[in-house]
Amino acid sequence: MFDHLITWFTPERRDRTLFRAEIAVGVFLALALMLDQTWRGGSFFAIVVSNVVALLLGFGVAVHRTRPHWAVVALGASVFVGLLATVLIGPPNNALIFLAAAVVTFGSSAYGNPATRWFGLGLSVLAAIGLALVFVIGAGLYVNVSLGYVLARIIEILIWPVISLMPWVLGELVRSIRNRRVLSAAVKSVSTERDAALTRADLEAERTRVARDVHDIVAHSLTVVIAQADGARYATTADSPAAADAFGTIAQTARDALADVRTLLTELRHTQEAGPQPGLANLDALFDSFRDSGLELNVHEFGERGRLTDARELALYRIAQESLTNALRHGDGRATLDLDWSDATVDLLVTNQAAATSARSTPPNAEPATDTDTAAATLSQPGHGIDGMRERSILAGGEFSIHEGATYRVRARLPREPREHPRAEARDSEGVVTEVHA
């Protein structure tokens, strides 16, 4: 039952309940002050002043937490009217007026903005000075009085001003406790996010280590299988066409497996990439987007574009993207990109001159990207893009080099898929023509 009550008493229900209770207390104090007139004298002015002060203080008590600035304004108005009545009629004789003023002062300090808090403090100081003057004037000058009487009057003069300041001090204490709780919650949240980030970093490092180990073991073994199968195929082409075909099938299967392994390793090491990835078909759009961003880009392509695996297409696209982004951010606004397609490899060369100044302003759209580019861009911090390009090249089975200085040059070489083997004719011992792969 107690747990159910705690679950039911949510912060929203608590605020609604407190607001209703505050309204009820404000109405009660207002009615109490109106029924028991604060300034008695029977005159019409005393009745009006008592009722006005009662309504102002009742309203202030009702909204002292939700609208502390309105409450403190109502308190200031009631203090002005009360001082006027005290001068014309006499001091008030209803203690509830001080209770209501204390509640409003507490609200101004605990829940108000800085202006409201300082205004509440000013009213508290004014009340303290007024009480001190009242007790000083009331004490008068007497002769033949005891020491105890003098000490009692001194204590009254000192303690009542302190009591008048206590509501504002208590409000400041409540505010400090609330701010400390908020700060503790923020620290806890940041610590949780930090721990989660460290966990993700450790997981990413472990995934990278596993990917590197798998690449070193599996990719190396498959490369050896491919080399041995190709050598055996060429060696047995004339003597045993069937064996040559078998070795060719083994080599092609190993190549496909190696491509699949590298694609898997790329996904394992770059977990932020998901969904369709850009490739050769997106290169021209990438070049145009950099030109639109202000980069004077010259593209030279030699040879006929060949077929690449998905992993190698993605690696070529990302290396070109990151190299051009680097040229846009840190170069002199011009870059040259060369693509050289040969039978076995594709060479990418990006060259640009370093900017004259160490820092060059980048346009707002300086990094053109597709929908998947945002997650993959890694050049926001120095060094990360170079490491990413090198890793992509290695995972794709290629090579990577970079030259830094007055001329900035990025070079990447990736293997491409072999073309279909031409058909050749070979005669067996009986003179029958057989088609084999050269």
General description of the model:
This protein is of the alpha+beta class. It contains twelve helices and seven strands. The chain has helices at 2-8, 11-35, 44-62, 68-88, 96-111, 114-139, 147-235, 241-269, 283-292, 310-330, 373-376, 384-395; strands at 296-302, 331-341, 345-354, 399-403, 407-415, 423-427, 433-437. Strands 1-2-3-5-4 form a five-stranded mixed β-sheet, with helices on one face. Helix 3 (44-62) packs antiparallel against helix 4 and helix 7 (147-235) runs antiparallel to helix 8. The chain is rod-shaped and about 130 Å long. The two termini are 85 Å apart. The model is unreliable at 358-383 and 421-438 (pLDDT under 50).
Task: Summarize, please.
By secondary structure, this protein is of the alpha+beta class. About 65% of the residues lie in helices and about 10% in strands.
- Estimated share of beta-strand residues: 5-15%
What is the CA-atom radius of gyration, in angstroms? 43 Å
Low-confidence stretches: 358-383, 421-438
Instruction: State the distance separating the first and last CA atoms.
Output: 85 Å
**Anisotropy-based shape:** rod-shaped
Q: Total helix count?
A: 12
Number of strands: 7
Main β-sheet: number of strands, strand sense, barrel status? 5 strands, mixed
Order of strands across the main sheet? 1-2-3-5-4
> What string gives the helices and strands in order?
HHHHHHHHHEHEEHHEEEE
- Percent helix, as a range, is 55-70%
| Overall pLDDT metric | 77
Structural class: alpha+beta
